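User: I'm writing a short methods note and want a consistent example. For Regulatory protein, Fis family, I'll paste the sequence; you return only the C-alpha cells, no commentary, since I'll be parsing the reply automatically.
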Amino acid sequence: MVTLLSWLGRTDLDRAKDDGPASIATIALKGPLLDEVIILASTWDDEWHDYKEWLKKKLTLAGRSKTSVVIQRVRLLSPIDYSSITKVMHKQLGTVCSNSDKVYLNLTSGTPAMAAVSVLLGKGTAKCQLVQTSPQGEIIEVDIPIDFAAEYKKSSSSAISQLVSQNPALNRAFDTITAKSELMHRVIRKAQKLAYSDLPALILGESGVGKEVMATAIHNASQRANKSFKAVNCGALPENLVDSILFGHVKGAFTGADKNHAGLFEQADGGTLFLDEVGELPFNVQVKLLRALQQKEITRVGDTVSKSIDVRIIAATHQDLFSMISDGSFREDLFYRLAVGVIEVPALRKRPEDIPDLISTLMLEINRQAHTHPLFESKKISKDAINFAISYSWPGNIRELWNTLNRAVLWSEGEMISMEDLKSSVLSAGKDAVKETGFTMPGDLQQYIDSIKKDAVIEALESCSGNKSKAAKMLGLNNHQTLNNWMKNLGLED
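Assistant:
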C-alpha cells in the first residue's frame, strides 16, 4: 500500500477550478503510483466535493483510476496553531503508517505551520518520504540532513540550565484559555507555576467559569501530560456507587459486581485525577480520599489488600469550603491536603476584555458543530451584539455565554446576529435588568461596589507585599488610615 498524505491548500482548490493541477494533483498524477490519497482539511468544506470529483476524474484520465481519494475532516483551533496541528498530524500519520508500506508526505500544500510539523514528524518516521513540488510542476523528494535526536541531545544541557535561571514562559497547554485581560494573565501565570510542580491543586470559581479547562491545561503542562487525565463530577456520583467509581471493587463485593473493576484512581495511575465539585463528596468518602492522598494507596470495595497509586489530585468547587468546614460537612484536614496550590478562576463579569475573543472562539466552534444541520448557514455576530455581551454580567459565566450564542445562532433569521438576537437569547435571571442601552444592573448596587473595592484592596496589598502605605497610594487613597477603614468595613482586618 502506497499513500500520499497531504494538507489541503487554497491553491489546490483554486487551480482545480481552472482545470490546472497544484501540488496534490501534481504528485498524484505524475509521481509514484499511489493506492490512496488522503487529504486533511478543516476549512472550505463546501468546495471539497467538487475538488474530490475533479481529482478522481483526472486520475482516471491518467490511467490511475484505482487510486482512491479521501478528504478527511479534522478540527484545528486555527491553521497556524502548532498544538492542534501536531495532535492531528501525529494521529493521522500513525494510522496511515500502520496501514501502508510507503507514505509520501506533501510539504507544499497547507500553511507553513503545517509544513513544519510535517517535517518534524515525518523525519522521524521510517516509512515516510517527504515530498514537495515546484511552481513549474516538478516533484522533489526532500532529504533533510539533520539528525534531530542528536541535535536535541547536544542542546539539552544548556537548555536545562537556562530554564533553571529564567522564569518559565507560558506553556502551549494554556493557549486554549482566552486571556487578554491582565487578571487572567495573572491567573495563568500562577497555574503555570503550579503545573511545573506535582502538588495537589484546588481550583475555585463560580459555576461555568471553566475550572475543568484550567485543570486540563495544568495537567497538559505538567510532567504527567503523557499519562491519563480522568475527570469526575463528584456531585453526579450515585451515593451507593461512589466508593466503587473512585476506588474500584472486586468481584462479589456487592450485588451486580460480577468482575473486578479498577476505579478512577487506578485508571489515572501515573497521571491526574480531576475531582470537580469536590464539596459534594459524602463525608465517609472524604475520609478515604484523605487516606489516598496521605498514604498514596487505595483499597477496592470488598478487598483486603491495598494498592499503591501515583495520582496527582486536582479538585474544584464553586462552594465556600470554609463555611462547610464550620458546619461540619467538609473535613478540615482534607481541605488543607487539597488546598496546597490554590487557583481562583475569576467570573466572566470581572474580565470583560476577554469576552470578544471568547465569542470569536465559541462562534467558530458553534458554526463547525452546526454545519450538519440541513437549514444551517454560517453566522457572524455584530459589533453591537459583542458590546452587549461585554456589558452583560453573565451570571452563568462562560457556560451561559456558550448556551446563549447557540440559541442566537439557531433562532436568528439573518446571517448576522444582532444585539436584539443575542439579548432575546439570554435566559438568566438577570435578563430583566438589561436596559436598552445594554447596561446591566448587577443585583444590590452597594454589595456590587463593595465586592469591587474588596477585590481591588486584596490585589493592591498582594502586589505591595502587604505594605499598606504603598497599597493606599496605588488605590488613590490619601493615607493608610483610610485604607484601614476600608478594610474594616469590608471585613478584611485579618
